[in-house]
Design a protein that fits this description.
The protein is an alpha/beta fold and 420 residues long. The chain folds into 2 domains: 7-60 and 382-418, Roll (Urease, subunit C, domain 1), CATH 2.30.40.10; 63-373, Metal-dependent hydrolases (TIM Barrel). The protein has 14 helices and 17 strands. The strands form 3 sheets. Strands 1, 2, 3, 4, 5, 15, 16 and 17 form an 8-stranded mixed beta sheet that branches. A 6-stranded parallel beta sheet has the order 10-9-11-12-13-14. Helix 4 crosses helix 5 (173-185) and helix 9 (256-264) runs antiparallel to helix 12 (305-324). The mean pLDDT is 96.
């Protein structure tokens, strides 16, 4: 069990998630699991406090992965969530947001996490994938085709304690709009991996976030386009949708990691042999290899590589455009999808966000305060300030100089206790 104690971190540089700057020579005090002070002066030292020398080191909030699955893929990978939850903490990911899973199974995982806080990140649960008929994913999908049945369904999800409702590809607008209305009535966030329900309509109806860059990209493509790699990101349709997303305050979770590592470029050794993959359990890695081998004869032909890389570059270009236009971006990975190792793939996501045009500070904001907002926890998580829960990561190098420095982990602190 985690033993929360008083902690004092002296003379450390602290990342301010509101301003996006690193504040030097700060002293951070933690008591009873929360930050009691953070200031550029010598502060009262609590009795029996653990003192950590922060000179030459950098303190960031605990990272949050805003797109994971705790149940989906467990059967395929022969690995259950209790086996991969510790990987998140190893990587400095102190919270995860589920984005579509079987709820009773999630509650059992939540119970495990509560019993083993030293091995588990904080969990924010989600509804099943709310889909049309037939559902795409039988393990974690739930068909909902009658708008009249939405209130009862949403009320049940609220009773289960989920934070997010996830609209999936088979939902049409009549059902989708009712899910958004009822979800908001119960104080729940509503997100979508959209298909039949157009992004233009979901945004107008008040959806809170869009999952995957596809939930924007797929709705700016003109009829008859010869290939997705040739999409015009400056077309009137693209501009209109991006401005609507910005105007309505809808967040976008690009999940670039899953597109690069699984969907498009899983035939490239630098991705399927990435060192991060070695952190995953052996059976999980074996399932990824089988998945890749099964897809290679059709989807991953060598002659299509250049076109696939151009397509992925379009996704990164669109991510950069969304950021420059002021759309709030989240950071998520779709772990444990193939070659998206829990925890460490979030560091890859941060690197790809920077490649897409975000500053390191903006990428960090996506993985901290922005992700905290999407689970309505921005007053508790996502920043280092008095009153907030003491989830923090101490680094040996400045991530604002090089986003890869988020990997230079010295200590992970969760709930005011140093994770061993």
């Amino acid at each position: 069990m985690l033993a929360a104690a008083a902690i004092v971190i002296r003379a450390v540089s602290v990342f301010d998630t509101e301003s996006g700057v690193m504040r030097p020579d700060q002293t951070v005090v933690v008591e009873d699991g929360r930050i009691t002070s953070a200031a550029a002066r010598q502060l009262r030292k609590p009795k029996r406090a653990q003192v950590i020398d922060g000179r030459g080191r950098f303190l960031i909030p605990g990272l949050i992965d805003a797109h994971v699955h705790l149940v989906h893929l467990s059967e395929a990978s022969l690995v259950t969530a209790d086996q991969f939850l510790p990987m998140f903490l190893d990587a400095g990911v102190t919270s995860v947001r589920s984005t579509g899973d079987a709820v009773p199974a999630q509650k059992l995982i939540e119970r495990f996490a509560a019993d083993h806080p030293d091995r588990s990140p904080r969990l924010f649960l989600c509804s099943p994938l709310i889909d049309g008929e037939p559902v795409v994913h039988r393990d974690v999908g739930r068909a909902l085709t009658d708008p009249a049945r939405v209130p009862e369904f949403v009320a049940g999800m609220a009773q289960w304690g989920v934070r997010t409702l996830k609209i999936y590809v088979g939902i049409d607008r009549t059902v989708g709009r009712r899910i958004i209305e009822e979800g908001h009535r119960h104080g729940l966030m509503v997100t979508g991996h959209l298909g039949r329900y157009r992004a233009q309509d979901a945004v107008a109806d008040g959806i809170d976030s869009l999952e995957h860059i596809w939930s924007v990209f797929n709705f700016i493509l003109p009829p008859g386009l010869d290939h997705r790699a040739n999409a015009d990101l400056s077309s009137p349709q693209a501009v209109e949708l991006i401005q609507a997303i910005k105007r309505r305050g809808v967040a976008v979770n690009p999940t670039l990691a899953v597109f690069r590592n699984m969907i498009l470029l899983a035939d490239q050794p630098e991705y399927y042999r990435h060192p991060d993959n070695a952190t995953a359990p052996e059976r999980m890695r074996e399932s990824w290899i089988k998945y890749r081998q099964a897809r290679m004869p059709t989807s991953l032909r060598p002659e299509t590589l250049a076109l696939r890389m151009r397509e992925f570059n379009k996704y990164q270009q669109l991510t950069g455009i969304l950021h420059r236009e002021g759309v709030r971006l989240l950071a998520g990975t779709d772990a444990p999808e193939p070659f998206c190792p829990p925890g460490w793939s979030l560091h890859q996501e941060l690197e790809m966000l920077v490649e897409s045009g975000l500053s390191p500070a903006a990428a960090l904001q996506a993985a901290t305060i922005n992700n905290a907002r999407i689970v309505n926890m921005n007053h508790e998580l996502g920043g280092i300030a008095p009153g907030r829960i003491a989830d923090m990561v101490l680094l040996s190098a400045d991530p604002l100089l090089d986003i890869r420095n988020t990997r230079r982990i010295v200590h992970v602190i969760k709930g005011g206790a140093v994770v061993r």
